[in-house]
Amino acid sequence: MARIALVTYDPRPEPSRDRDLPVLRAALERAGAEADGVFWDDPDVDWASYDLVVIRSTWDYSWRADEFTAWAQKVAEVTRLANPAAVVRWNADKRYLGELAAAGVPTVPTRYLAPDDPADLPADHEYVVKPTSGAGARYAARYTPDQHETAVRQLARMHDEGLTAMVQPYVRGIDAGGERALQFFGGRLLHASRKRAVLAPGTAYDAQKVAHPGLEPWVPTPAEIAVAERALAAVPDASGLLYARVDLVDGDDGQPCVMELELVEPNLFLFLHPESVPAVAAAIMAAAGTR
Fold it and tell me: What is the CA radius of gyration of the chain?
């Protein structure tokens, strides 16, 4: 019997928001595995006792990125980790967008402002500021040029916390076409979803935001699939990828481009796509048998 760890985080005192976890556990148990939901930072877990450790909903990792990537490396030294520790480390810092762009993958144009950099912000178009280590729109906000002083205060707050900022043009295509998430599992396209824009004008960067507003199933276009596959092909050491989510928006030319590449802990939205559960379980079982 394969032993599989489905790794999450401890949300106490709030209830867990991971709707996929109980569905996955049940599907894996029906397939003959022993599947445990475990917290990534639980010091009492014997990771070596598992045939496969699958990162699923470690949704506090961006606050503790160094600690999390060190944990991933430690686990990878004693058993198989999905996704691999090197991929986790690479994807945990959104400066990977620059590498994708350099590889010819269509991406949202991105600049980076480290703590010692001046507040070089756009003066002629709406833009977004967010951290290179973040999830769920944490510390993300959109600004018009006349909101420069407010954006500078956000930068100062982030830099005081040691965070590097990303500056991107606000992509107007999100307002019309939303953001599309293409999910891959076991090397194959699993399903896709679409959500509305997350960042409303005037919403404070430190306000709580709805990460997936208006989520609905989506049938991806051939152009979207092609861009997603190009992005995944550009990932260093991608041979061990078990899962991936490619988030796409329409650029100024109307063509899809990468907003983010989620290889650490993407929500699979199985509640929206129950037909995908058997394929996910089968891919996890296959991965567990390759140790």
Answer: 19
Cis, peptide link before residue 83, omega less than 30° from 0: yes
The b-or-e profile of 178-198 (16+ CB within 10 A means b, else e) is: bbbbbbbbeeeebbbbbbbbb
DSSP bridge pairs for 72: none
For 198-225, what is the mean pLDDT?
86
Helix and strand counts by DSSP (H, E) for the chain: 8, 13
Q: What is the pLDDT of residues 171-200, one digit of tens each?
A: 998 998 999 999 999 989 999 999 998 888
Alpha carbon 17 to chain centroid distance? 15
Amino acid at 183: Q
pTM of the model: 0.93
Longest dimension (CA), the chain: 61
Task: Tell how strand 243-250 and strand 216-217 pair up.
Answer: unpaired
3-state secondary structure of 59: coil
Q: Comparing 122 with 16, which gets the higher pLDDT? A: 122
How many beta carbons lie within 10 A of that of residue 276, not counting itself? 16
- What is the average pLDDT value for the chain, to the nearest integer? 93
